[in-house]
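Q: Sequence in, structure out?
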Amino acid sequence: MAGGHFKTSSILRINPFPMKAIEEKFRPISFEEFKKKYQKTPVIEHPNLRFGKKPVVTVRILSYNHIDFIRPCLDSILKQKVDFDYEILIGEDESSDGTREVCIEYAKKHPKKIRLLLNSRKNNIAINGKPSGMFNSLYTNFSIRSKYIALCESDDIWQDEYSLQKRVDFMDSNPDFSFCFHNAVNHIYNPKKQSSLPKNKIVYRSKSGELGLDDVYTMIPTASILYRHHLIDTFVLGQEQISCGDLLLRHKLLCHGRAMYLHDIEPSTRIIHQGGNFTQLSRLHQSQITLKANEFVFRFLSEKGVKAPNVLAKIQLKRFKYSIYQSLSNKKPNLRTLGQIAKTLRFAVSNPRSFSNVLGRKIEFMYRKRG
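A: Exactly. Output:
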């Protein structure tokens, strides 16, 4: 790193692998190899009238037990006003609450616009011994054939009818950028009330619209991201055990170009509800998941020869945070917690620039998150 501000040392060990193990762990996997390894029963594509046509944009939606949100989500995408062809690709993960039936209803009603993949839970890939949406996500990603990919979760709602058009216009005019995104507001859902709590939690705030790898504490709304297809490998070995796929996606894309925040798009609605996979977890488990994801990202970037001192500093803070949550769950501090505090302080002294940068961004992020 320029200026010599980043020092590698024995203070922070990121599970080092021999070179062969690293190359194997991050080896790209083809669709055929993926299906051979993980598919237990065929995924059925609902009949449609797309006829293999390649759209300019694929809006990728993953759905599982979102019966309260799937209709407004799909309606918000279908009402997009564009001058190009786009398709909606839904990966339906065998919902049990009626979501699958709604998806089939929409697919029948819009056969020229919607491709529906009907997955089986028999294909589920467990992460840490628990069911996940990993197979559904990866299979759906492999099935995309467009120039651009726009992400939208089935519990998110686009509010701007020109959202797709504006993002595609930017990407067409700026080939050096790997992705763009816009803002969102958190909408806390309460099924017992007619209306949810006020939509007053802005997800992203920034004076500058351009982002790079150093912006590690930037909260980018996943349902606002539009990126170039074929820039990155859809799946690398080891990725199937990482829950925070959006984190890995952003870092992989930023290895190929910067990102731009578009101010002129109306914020989408990001629904916060108890049915969300992540929100159901304890703080200890959430901390463990994000720590594991960041360690994977760091190893991935290192294998690619990308220096990421801020990611390393972020890991150190997350390890510190995880040790604190462990102590709280045990109701008493332990030697591991004290040792992690010492490591964090030593890392801060050895790498003042990267540590202060990340800590400053974290404080700023927490302040903005509070509203």
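The radius of gyration is 21 Å.
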